[in-house]
Amino acid sequence: MATVVLLTLTGLGLGALYFLVASGLSLIFGLMDVLNFAHGALLSVGAYGAWWGATHGFGFVPAVVFGTAVGTAAAVLLELGVIRPLYRRPRAQVLATVGVGLAVPALLSAVWGSDARPFPGPRALAGTVGLLGAEIPVNRFVLIGAAVAVLAALRLFLGRTRHGLVVRAGVEDRAMVTALGIDVRRAFTLVFAIGGAAAALAGALAGLYFGSVDPGQGSSLLIFAFVVVVMGGMGSVTGAAVASVAVGVLQQFANYYTSAGLGDLSVVVLLAVLLLVRPQGRWLSGRPA
Q1: pLDDT > 70: what percent of the chain?
Q2: Does position 200 have pLDDT exceeding 60, yes or no?
Q3: pTM above 0.90?
């Protein structure tokens, strides 16, 4: 029983990390039709921003806020400088974001080296909590709490705020919204900033989860984020949340009860089965939200 509880909660923690990465990716693609391969680079920027703040005495929470802010600023610059001129050129868009996704880890390696850097997490989050006979790392609950907060905030933004409604209307009929005197470009920049903030927050908390940061961290997590987005339905934040839980828990159980590394394979097999059964997608969510 204790083992099942431990694997379930650690799987939820891993799933929460996947959701933080995938939520921004799903939001940007679903609302803006931009397949952002530089999303992992934003995660790496947030991770190194939080690491830099933590090593310079910011404290954990201020360091996470700083890393998230740096990643958000990087997302805005990416949208203004790279994405916006290429909205009508999707192929060039993909190539440009792939280039940024490769350039940023290389730049981080050049500045701080390619070796992993230990992340100085607070002592309060380094211990464990006893639950039903299992000792659960405290940082897993931090990740789960952050993911729940982000999910609630994104649903509120999309369904209850003026900017969220403008973005959704702009996606459906950009010409009509522009004719009403609304600057859709600003709304799209806001969406990109929110997506980048979620990725940067994931990067900051990934340092806490893994205990270190490295330039390639964003690229490895981006792979699972794409799997989650495809499983949950393009543009569905709720679907991404459900898929993240499924992927994280499946990985943990597969890695424990089989051999190390088969957890990743099990996720790929699950995705392949779902693609064969329902190739049109949206297995876990019927509508975007």
Answers
A1: 88
A2: yes
A3: no
Helix axis angle, 2-32 relative to 162-172, nearest 10°? 60
Comparing CA positions, the residue from 237, 250, 245, 249 lying closest to residue 285 is 237
Place of tokens 């600023």: 73
Q: How far is CA 136 from CA 3, 16, 127, 279, in A?
A: 10, 15, 8, 37
The torsion angles phi and psi of 120, rounded to 5 degrees, stand at -80, 80
Question: Measured between alpha carbons, how far is residue 183 from residues 30, 71, 118, 284 in Å?
Answer: 19, 24, 44, 33
Nearest partner of 51 among 225, 211, 219, judged by Cα: 211
Contact 195, 25 (CB under 8 A): yes
Whole-angstrom CA distances from 100 to 54, 83, 195 are 26, 11, 16
The distance in angstroms from the start CA to the end CA of the chain is: 35
- 232-277 pLDDT, tens per residue? 877 778 888 988 998 888 888 888 787 766 777 777 777 777 777 7
Pairing of strands 128-131, 212-213: unpaired
Got the DSSP string for 8-41?
HHHHHHHHHHHHHHHHHHHHHHHHH----TTHHH
Q: Going from the N-terminus, what domains does the chain have, and what CATH number goes with each?
A: 2-277 (1.10.3470)
- 270 three-state secondary structure: helix
